[in-house]
Specification:
Jelly Rolls, PngaseF_N_sf, 6-stranded antiparallel sheet, GLPGLI, 2 domains, 12-stranded antiparallel sheet, GLPGLI family protein, mainly beta, PngaseF_C
Length: 557
């Protein structure tokens, strides 16, 4: 009797094993959920797997509706190689192989099990960049694969959970009768992994190189060429740039990289756009001298060229205000113990508000660094466009109002000392019909005067619209010491401080100055006045205080 039972159960086990034949291939559909709720309008994830290969793809890719760039991941279980393939655009794709990643994956295994789609799953846990990842996998289909690179070699991954709240779960498993043709690694250009990541990242946005390591210095014979124009003895460079159509809601960034090429001092820098919408423009002044610019006169006896918009002239539209540090790169030979100087300074600023002025436009973009040094500085400027959806208007109306930064300082443009008069800076502007929710983008920095000058004193800025105060604040930076490693040539004082450590009027050597976005409400159509009032310090010997302020109006439809 015992022999009979043994034979019977052996026979059943053999037949059961034949019944669970390994499928040639499978297709698994995955859905995402967050905090227990299904993510709406999601792009479904698919896994195709055979005993040799797996492929991670998506519904939009399969339907040829995916936006460029898009990726697919292949895993070869025989060679333990992960291959990532990316379609960057219609006629360009790249491939990268990694034969070490699978072997480097480390897991903690648990005795916990649970059923997913009637398959018993085991649990493995790992950590990636401080994120806890739970992986639920099954070995009951005798195949391997998953919706991500993690756990591919454990079995079939039917669920991954990140930090307990972001879940990717298998909702459908299809047994395929044949191995689909897409389960084959494409034969395209292969690059190393770092190059692959870099090309994939750069394909996600539009980058417009404006200036590339251009020298901005003070020389009498500064020469222009076919693309870069030089003015004010070489301290101003300008180039005409064509921008593509930019959707509303896109993110636009300006990136400046700066190094000293001989100048040891902290200098004011500015990236600006030259509006060409009226009879006169700032370009006239650059070409023909400051006398070609309209004059602002507030009664203090000085003439300020090109600082406010008029009926026939639009002032410079400032894109970014930045400040060079003391001699970064060129003076890095000045050693201090435990100080490793930076090679350059990188300034990056969100300029998305300017979308209406850039989209599908050809404009003059300029850069200024005030200095009197023949070596001066070297600077690069790139503008990147990260396209968004056309459902979040940033501001359909932009009106440049004023810019007192004397970009033509080295060609005789007056310093902005008009604030020594009670009138300060005052101008009239006109609001068109059909706009609301107006804002003023206002950038301000104080300069000059040595110890008792406005560079080192806290001074309140007051803004009045139609003689009514709408905003006041005291611009001040107390974090300048954070940028010491960009300032090798900074002077050092007897009390142990460096000049670059000193707090300043809204700027530090080696930083940008962020604009203030001031709510003005719903201005009525028609003419209005704006006045900027700042209590300017008195001159000290041959040094005077000055305030560089720029502003433009933003309105929404």
């Amino acid at each position: 009797m015992k022999n009979f039972l043994f034979t019977f159960f052996t026979f059943c086990a053999i037949n059961l094993s034949f019944a669970q034949k390994v499928p040639k291939a499978i297709k698994i559909t995955y859905q995402r959920s967050s905090n227990g709720k299904l993510v709406e309008n999601q792009n479904l994830m698919f896994l195709f797997a055979s005993k040799d290969l797996s492929l991670i793809t998506s519904d939009k890719i399969m339907q040829q509706k995916a936006d460029f760039p898009f990726e697919q991941t292949f895993v070869d279980f025989n060679t333990k190689t992960i291959s990532q393939w990316a379609q960057l655009k219609a006629n360009k794709s790249i491939l990268s192989h990694d034969s070490e990643a699978l072997g480097k994956q480390k897991f903690e295994f648990s005795n916990e099990t649970k059923k997913i789609l009637n398959y018993t799953c085991k649990k493995a846990t790992t950590s990636v960049n401080s994120n806890k990842i739970e992986i639920w996998y099954t070995n009951e289909l005798s195949l391997k694969g998953g919706p991500g690179v993690l756990g591919q070699d454990l079995g079939l991954v039917l669920e991954t959970i990140r930090n307990g709240n972001s879940t990717l779960t298998a909702t459908k498993i299809e047994i395929l009768k044949t191995i689909p043709s897409i389960l084959a690694v494409p034969s395209v250009q292969s690059v190393d992994q770092l190059t692959y990541k870099d090309l994939l990242w750069k394909s996600r946005f539009v980058n417009i190189p404006v200036f590339n390591k251009e020298q901005i210095h003070f020389v009498s014979d500064a020469k222009s060429n076919d693309s870069v124009f030089r003015f004010a003895s070489g301290t101003v460079i300008v180039r005409k740039v064509k921008f593509p159509e930019i959707k509303k809601g896109s993110s636009i960034y300006a990136d400046v990289t700066e190094q000293s090429n001989g100048d040891a001092y902290d200098r004011t820098g500015s990236v600006f756009m030259i509006p060409m919408d009226k009879k006169q423009s700032f370009l006239d002044g650059l070409k023909n001298g400051v006398k070609a610019l309209p004059v602002y006169d507030n009664g203090n006896g000085k003439k300020y060229q090109g600082v406010v918009s008029t009926e026939e002239y639009t002032s410079l539209l400032e894109v970014m205000r930045f400040f060079t540090p003391f001699g970064v790169k060129h003076f890095n030979y000045l050693e201090l113990k435990n100080k490793v100087w930076q090679d350059s300074v990188i300034y990056r600023q969100d300029i998305s508000l300017l979308q209406p002025k850039l989209s599908n436009q050809e404009v003059y973009i300029g850069m200024f660094i005030g200095n009197y040094d023949a070596g001066g500085h070297k600077a690069s400027l790139n503008i990147s466009i990260h396209q968004g959806e056309d459902n979040n208007p940033k501001g359909d109306f932009i009106l440049p109002l004023f810019n007192t930064l004397n970009v033509m300082e080295m060609a005789g443009q007056e310093y902005s000392t008009m604030f020594d008069n009670e009138k300060g800076l005052e101008m009239t502007f006109e609001v068109p019909q059909g706009y609301k929710n107006f804002k003023l983008s206002y950038t301000t920095t104080g300069h000059g005067g040595w110890e008792n000058g406005d560079e080192f004193l806290q001074k309140k800025n007051t803004i009045l619209i139609d003689e009514k105060e709408v905003f006041d604040f005291t611009p001040w930076r107390t974090d300048c010491g954070s940028y010491r490693l960009s300032n090798p040539a900074s002077g050092n004082f007897g009390n142990g401080l460096s000049s670059s450590d000193e707090s300043r009027s809204n700027w530090c050597p080696g930083t940008t100055t962020n604009p203030n976005l001031i709510d003005l409400g719903n201005l009525t159509p028609g003419k209005h006045t704006i006045r900027i009032s700042i209590p300017l310090g008195k001159p000290e010997g041959n040094s005077s205080s000055a305030w560089n302020v720029s502003g433009f109006l933003v309105g929404e439809k």
